[in-house]
Q: What sequence folds into this?
């Protein structure tokens, strides 16, 4: 039994308990759980936590992991700054403008 | 699943949920709402959720104002236990051409006459409201401090949960596959989870409105086109209002969580009902955003996604019934501004269905306007 205070999603501080609560509320697809908890929606875009979440969801809702995989791809795969696309001259390191 | 209903509402976006809530509040029993995916999975959960009263057509000003008033107390009214994140810090609409500048002045005069607190302002004033704004390409602006934006997922869930507490039965992951009719009257709805007998159906299926029409054997004058949108990483609060420019083709906001969300109309967007995305969008979107808000240059884009605009011939919603098929009601064709009309859609449609006098006359939005050639003209759309 996992410790319920363990953080699954480090970008948005989502714990195992948050995922369980969402499932208890009746949400059983990844898309819904993302919207309820913000899990996987931070800067890493789920690269660290997605499999952990899918495993919890799979066990708790008794669905195979393959059936839970996200069906739409939402680029960019890795976050990129505006000036990289926008064609303006690049400046300095990765610090935010504000 | 139940086998009969007083009314079946198709679609769990803001329109369907608000209609269900209002009907239940007015005392209708045995209301069923069917949603093929989950609540707000369509355009609603994918949208910018901006709400503005700064319109050029009187009808739009009124519908938007009625909705804005509702949003201000929506959390209490709907008894929702979560923040719906209404950031009421205005809309700043930038005019880049002489034509837009002229239109702005006319719009403000009309809006003020309807009790909407908008103003025609100079670029200096605009810069006070948005200090990071690059005003180079603009002439003037209009501003209404009561406009703003919300979290569309929580707003819609607030309607859905309030509706459920009033007895509405909501079935998610339930897809309507057929509409049964006899002698020009609705008699039932077929879904992948079972058949429901009913003589009233509301088509609130957003991007799929025309598909529902086909099921009922009715050709609806609407089509859907993809629109894309992106979100950045959260950064410190720096932008209060929603900023938009029609000619530059951009709307941009910073949500309370810190992320920037922005979108554009685009050219040649597909009409295939798919939620695909394009590289081209990222390029053009970031270029326009940087020209207006250069400080965004180091901010990172996290993801882009898309949703459907359901367009009607005059880019205004279609409310009301359908002359050829008794029992079919329409709340469709929102053409990119159906979120901000949501609360009004719910109220006005419920009043109409129950045969009450509607709070705002909606006969001008009836489907028959296209045959009669009485289209509504609206100059200010993204
Ligand atoms: C990128 C983008 C940005 C936008 N920005 C704004 C904005 O800033 N402000 C604004 O006011 N509006 C905005 N809009 C428009 C707004 O999102 C829509 O007008 C509004 O959400 C429409 O709500 P709806 O409930 O009518 O439709 P939807 O939210 O699309 O809901 C329809 C529902 O019906 C379901 N459905 C479809 N077919 C079936 C079936 N056969 N059986 C069961 N269910 C079915 C769908 O799954 C869907 O959930 C934007 C739209 C997009 C795409």
A:
């Amino acid at each position: 039994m996992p410790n319920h205070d363990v953080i699954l999603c480090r970008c948005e501080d989502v714990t195992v308990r948050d995922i369980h609560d969402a499932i208890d509320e009746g949400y059983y697809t990844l898309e819904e759980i993302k919207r309820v908890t913000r899990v996987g929606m931070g800067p890493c875009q789920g690269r660290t936590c997605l499999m952990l979440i899918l495993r919890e969801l799979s066990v708790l809702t008794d669905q195979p992991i393959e059936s839970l995989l996200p069906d739409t791809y939402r680029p960019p795969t890795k976050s990129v700054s505006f000036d990289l696309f926008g064609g303006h001259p690049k400046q300095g390191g990765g610090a935010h403008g504000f | 699943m139940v086998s009969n209903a007083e009314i079946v509402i198709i679609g769990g976006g803001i329109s369907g949920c608000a209609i269900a809530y209002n009907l239940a509040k007015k005392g209708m029993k045995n209301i069923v709402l069917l949603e093929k995916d989950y609540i707000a999975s369509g355009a609603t959960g994918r949208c910018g959720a901006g709400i503005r009263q700064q319109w050029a057509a009187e009808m739009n000003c009124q519908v938007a104002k009625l909705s804005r008033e509702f949003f201000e107390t929506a959390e209490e009214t709907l008894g929702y236990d979560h923040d719906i994140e209404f950031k009421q810090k205005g809309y700043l609409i930038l005019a880049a051409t002489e034509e837009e500048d002229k239109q702005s002045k006319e719009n403000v005069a009309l809006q003020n006459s309807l009790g909407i607190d908008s103003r025609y302002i100079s670029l200096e004033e605009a810069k006070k409201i948005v200090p990071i704004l690059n005003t180079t390409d603009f002439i003037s602006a209009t501003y209404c401090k009561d406009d703003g934006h919300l979290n569309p997922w929580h707003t819609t869930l607030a309607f859905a949960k309030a509706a459920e507490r009033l007895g509405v039965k909501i079935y998610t992951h339930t897809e309507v596959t057929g509409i049964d009719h006899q002698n020009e009257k609705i008699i039932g709805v077929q879904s992948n989870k079972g058949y429901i007998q009913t003589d009233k159906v509301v088509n609130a299926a957003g991007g799929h409105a025309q598909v529902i029409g086909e099921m009922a054997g009715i050709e609806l004058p609407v089509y859907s086109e993809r629109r894309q949108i992106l979100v950045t990483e959260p950064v410190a609060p720096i932008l209060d209002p929603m900023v938009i420019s029609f000619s530059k083709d951009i709307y941009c906001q910073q949500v309370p969580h810190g992320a920037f969300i922005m979108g554009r109309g685009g050219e040649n967007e597909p009409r295939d009902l798919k939620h695909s995305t394009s590289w081209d969008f990222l390029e053009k979107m970031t270029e326009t955003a940087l020209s207006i808000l250069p400080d965004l240059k180091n901010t990172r884009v996290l993801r882009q996604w898309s949703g459907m605009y359901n367009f009607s011939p005059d880019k205004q919603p279609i409310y009301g019934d359908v002359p050829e098929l008794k029992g079919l009601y329409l709340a469709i064709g929102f053409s990119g501004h159906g979120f901000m009309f949501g609360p009004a859609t719910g109220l006005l449609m419920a009043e109409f269905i129950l045969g009450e006098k509607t709070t705002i006359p909606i006969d001008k939005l009836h489907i028959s306007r296209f045959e009669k050639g009485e289209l509504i003209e609206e100059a200010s759309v993204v």
In short: Residues B 10-16, 34-37, 41-44, 46-50, 175-176, 204-208, 227, 229, 263, 307-309, 334, 336-340 surround flavin-adenine dinucleotide (CB under 6 Å). Residues 29 and 68 of chain A are 7 Å apart (CA to CA).
